[in-house]
Design a protein that fits this description.
By secondary structure, the protein is an alpha/beta fold. Helices cover about 20% and strands about 20% of the residues. It has one domain: 3-Layer(aba) Sandwich (Rossmann fold), CATH 3.40.50. The chain is globular, with a radius of gyration of 16 Å. Bound molecules: pyrazine-2-carboxylic acid and zinc ion.
């Protein structure tokens, strides 16, 4: 039988970007993105501690194709800090698209971490922005709270979940991505590349039914 995980006081569930714009019909709809909502709701009940992340861009954000004349959505360009994918407009501060899904039901979440609010820096990761040096403060928060293991669910598997998992690992947390509670954008094989990367780094990829098991 595969490994099972009993959830305790040193575990936190990071629920990544379950917002209207990342669900079908949204500005940057992830295929089947809405399917993670009931999964996240169910998982969250097994955790005493939950943190939500919220992609939260100002109008005219650098990551929008609409802010970079001559670019098309999903094309990669070079910006000051390196390559950056051009996205359709999404998760603009204060809009309906930026709100959490109305059916996301995690009232006991202890922190909502917003990211991507610097106009000239994107932030896939909940820990570091895409320049790889600007911190969001989340690592310090989780350490001060005494968390050691970070489980992750949400959108998108191959962008915000991937970079958050990598950075949590780099910050020496024990990381477990709950793969069936995530959905991918899958640009040019990015979902398969993410699975490979997790394997290489030793980041756990687990299924939701293995989480919260008690003897
Ligand atoms: C995301 C692209 C742009 C994500 C956010 O949540 O995975 N992807 N902004
Ligand atoms: Zn974004």
């Amino acid at each position: 039988m595969s490994e099972r995980f009993t959830i305790g006081e040193r575990d936190v569930l990071l629920v990544v970007d379950i917002q209207n714009d990342f669900c079908p019909g949204g500005g940057l709809g992830v295929p089947k993105g809405d399917e993670v909502v009931p999964m996240a709701n169910r998982l969250a009940k097994k955790f005493a501690h939950v943190v939500l992340t919220q992609d939260w861009h100002p109008r005219g954000h650098l990551s929008f194709a609409s802010s970079n004349p001559g670019t098309q959505p999903f094309q990669t360009i070079e910006v000051a800090y390196g390559p950056q994918v051009m996205w359709p407009d999404h998760c603009i501060q204060g809009t309906r698209g930026a709100e959490f899904r109305a059916d996301l039901d995690i009232p006991h979440a202890e922190l909502v971490l917003r990211k991507g609010y610097h106009r000239a820096i994107d932030s896939y990761s909940a820990f570091y922005e895409n320049d790889r040096t600007t911190h969001t403060g989340l690592a310090g928060y989780l350490r001060e709270r005494g968390f050691e293991r970070v489980f992750m669910a949400g959108l998108a598997f191959d962008f915000c979940v991937r970079y958050s998992a990598e950075d949590a690992h780099r910050e020496r947390f024990n990381v477990m991505v709950i793969e069936d509670a995530c959905r991918a954008i899958d640009l040019e094989g990015s979902a398969a590349a993410t699975r490979e990367l997790f394997k290489t780094l030793g980041i756990g990829c687990v299924m939701a039914d293995a989480v919260g098991y008690r003897e």
